[in-house]
Amino acid sequence: MSKELRTAPGMRERSPGVWELIVECGRDPVTGKRRQKSRTFHGNLRDATKARSELLTEVSHGKHRGTKVTVDDLFRDWIVELERKGRSPSTIHNYDKTYRRNIAPTLASKPVEKITTKMLTDLYGEHQRRGLAPRTVYQIHATISSMMTQACRWGWRDSNPAQWAEPPALPNTVPVVPTPDDVRALMRAAHDSRRPEYARAIFVAASTGVRRGELCAIRRDRDIDWDRKVLTVAHNIIDLNGRPTQEAPTKNRRIRRLAIDDHTLRLLTEQVKMLERRAAEVGVDLDPDPFVFSDSVDGSEPWRPGAVTLYFGRLRKRVGLDHIQFHSLRKFMETYGQDLGFAPSQVAMRAGHDPSVATKHYTGKIAEADRAIADGISGLLLGGS
Q1: Is residue 44 domain-shared with residue 11, that is, in the same domain?
Q2: 101-133: pLDDT as tens digits
Q3: What is the pLDDT of residues 228-278, one digit of tens each?
Q4: Structural domains in the chain (count)
Q5: Domain-embedded: residue 347
Q6: Can you list the pairs that 159-166 forms with residues at least 24 positions away whose Cβ atoms lie under 8 Å?
Q7: In whole angstroms, how large is the CA radius of gyration of the chain?
Q8: Domain holding 256: CATH number?
């Protein structure tokens, strides 16, 4: 009986009292090769048999199923998976930039199964010592965490090591919201510049709260219901360095329909008439459904969001409002929409945000709003006395 146990598969006595215990772990999901886990055990036959049973239990519970795939292999396959799921090209571009700059130099050649929480914590600390901003380090953490979550889904790891790695805390920042006077100053400066159409663009962005890429994506007929005074926001222009512009769904893939006031409608009408005059002057037929904001004579190509940022940067400097970004026009709509008495949920829906996200990231004048709430609640408690 003892002899049969000594020669049984999975147990081999290499020398008196020294056992090699072997358990099959299936096939490697990347290479397809069979895998096995071996362990050296010192003791008698009975204890060696018990140790092998424990090893079998560990394997059956998902342990020891690692693969030789590297972090670089994981990144490439993860990007393909994001593309399959339809993630925004700009999102994928940012992931790629973060990985190649701040993750690949340290972790690219490491086996996925060997990445530990301590390694990630050390990586974050090293980047902080290099002077990277906390938000940048947090982006590194978010990228690694998403990659490792995918590795777990594919069976390349048993757990996500980024789950317990702690990036630096993000600083609390108060949103910068332009005043109505600020926006009017920007529009006047744009109107007096060589590109007066930007005055119209600034007004439309401030009154509707559309994002920069969404503004560029507006088409005359597809997106504007001129009779009902409704703007449909369903598209976004992607502008990445070295690539042609492309049209994609909105950032969060939501389609929203915005009421537009008479003045905004009049400015959009003026912009379309400008496109028609420009095309007629050079004898070119206007595109059947032109982009409302376009530099091409036939209106077939939209403004590039990057060019909008460059122009706006020069414009704000000209009027001494360097602290304001084009995105601030979106915050203007949300903040003053609430100041006018509209519910945060209503304003957030107009901006295409979840109300809780809008309150956390996009609402300015927090101090004033908080004081008004405090006064109102205090008045209720005092009973008007």
Answers
A1: yes
A2: 999 999 999 999 899 999 999 999 999 999 999
A3: 888 999 999 988 877 788 888 888 788 888 888 888 999 999 999 999 999
A4: 3
A5: no
A6: 161/115, 161/116, 161/117, 161/119, 161/120, 162/117, 162/120, 163/117, 164/117, 165/117, 165/120, 165/121, 165/124, 165/141, 166/121, 166/124
A7: 30
A8: 1.10.443.10
